[in-house]
Amino acid sequence: MRARARKRSRSVDLAIVGTDPFAVALREALSETPFPYNEVRLLASGSGEGSLAEFNGEPRIVLKAEEQALEGVQLAFFCEDPATGGAYRNWPSSGGYLAMDLTNAADITEKMPFAALGRQEALPKPRRGWIGGAHPLAHLVHTIVAPLAAHLEVTALRGVILRPASDFGKVGLEELYQQSVNLLNFSELPRQVFGRQLAFNLMPTDVLQAAGVQSTLVSSQVRALMGSTDLPVSLFMAVAPVFHAHTVVMHLDIEDLPSEAKLRKLLGASNELTVGSGPLTSAELEERPRPHVGLIRNDPVGGGVWLWVLADRVEAAAAEGAVLMAARLLGFEPRKPGAVPE
User: Fold this and answer.
1) Do 323 and 282 share a structural domain?
2) pLDDT on residue 107
3) Are residues 305 and 173 located together in one domain of the fold?
4) Contact, 234 vs 248, CB < 8 A?
5) Residue 47: CATH number of its domain
6) Which residues, at least 6 apart from 58, have a Cβ–Cβ distance to it below 8 Å?
7) How far apart are CA 66 and CA 280, in angstroms?
8) Alpha carbons 207 and 211: distance in angstroms, whole number
């Protein structure tokens, strides 16, 4: 049964502002998670305004994102790009509702409250105004590290994240496809999204105008999610010539490093991960709902452990986390889909 069909004694009106992949993932998470909503407004600015969207199996027109359109809501998710998201800064305080910033317009250093599931003491009070939500890549890194950090002392985290073309929306997927076709036909390459050749190539996100989130922001969010502002976190991001699936190569420094078998057991106990007997590649991953840890190798030289992880649909996992966090902020006990009895 869909979440909207559930009868609740309490319910809220909420809005999703944006039409990017994260906004789409939020719509799916809300329709599949027992979240106590009454009305869901779909809003956007720019080219997203007036577009056709779907929510809970029904077609919806995306309305113009303006302050008056959010009157009466108790919760709003803002998912547009950072430049646009900054224009909304005064709306929640004047409207008196909780706003989750998923635009990454504000860094942790700007003192925006930023809370993580499982850290009840970090939730802001009163629960109105802005709260920072984790970027999907920060959520992914935290999902990988958290099962180990719960039992071991992680002293440093370093990693390389290879991002697929899907991180840049449909236009990114289309450009990678067209570049691949044109290269094989010795034709001119389209470069509107990536600015240079991505097909059969690798490039650091630093050279991309459309790179969006930066590694420094993801690193600061990982520290916030870990509840350790002084944890050394260093991430490097590049774009790979693949259509879907993120690849994460991560090195963790751990005090009293246990055996690979013990690390595998700790990671395998997490409901948010799958652990395999060998590494998969992005071509072999298919569609999996959880990140897949395919390689766990203790570093014989510098100490610590290397992990090879692949993840598909990172926006979906982060969106579910954002919905559960919003439920807790509004005083509802968050539960996984299917955990609420009829």
Assistant:
1) no
2) 54
3) yes
4) no
5) 3.40.50.720
6) none
7) 45
8) 8
**pLDDT for position 190:** 95
- 283 and 323 in a single domain? The answer is no
Angle, CA 47 vertex, CA 44 and CA 49 arms, to 5°: 40
**CATH number of the structural domain spanning residue 278:** 3.30.360.10
Structure tokens at 209: 């105008």
Q: Report the candidate in 172, 176, 137 with the shortest Cα–Cα distance to residue 321.
A: 137
Domain tally for the chain? 2
pLDDT value for 237? 94
Instruction: Compute how many other C-beta atoms are within 10 angstroms of the C-beta atom of residue 105.
Output: 21
Q: Which residues of the chain have pLDDT under 50?
A: 1-9, 108-109, 337-342
Cα–Cα dist 170/183, whole Å: 20
The tokens of 307 are what?
């992990």
3-state DSSP call for residue 61? Answer: strand
- Asked if 132 contacts 101 with a C-beta cutoff of 8 angstroms, the reply is yes
Q: Containing domain of residue 145, as a range?
A: 138-311
Residues 83 and 157 in one domain: no
The pLDDT value recorded for residue 234 is: 95
Cβ count within 10 A of residue 94: 9
pLDDT of residue 80: 78
CB contact set of 98 (below 8 Å; sequence gap of 6+): 74, 75, 76, 92, 127, 128, 129, 131, 326, 329, 330
pLDDT above 70 covers what percent of the chain? Answer: 84
The residues near 131 (Cβ < 8 Å, ≥ 6 apart) are: 98, 99, 100, 101, 112, 113, 114, 115, 124, 329
pLDDT reported for residue 4: 42
Closest listed residue to residue 171, CA positions, set 200, 201, 191 = 191
Structure confidence at residue 341 (pLDDT) = 32
Of 145, 120, 123, nearest to 132 by C-alpha is 123
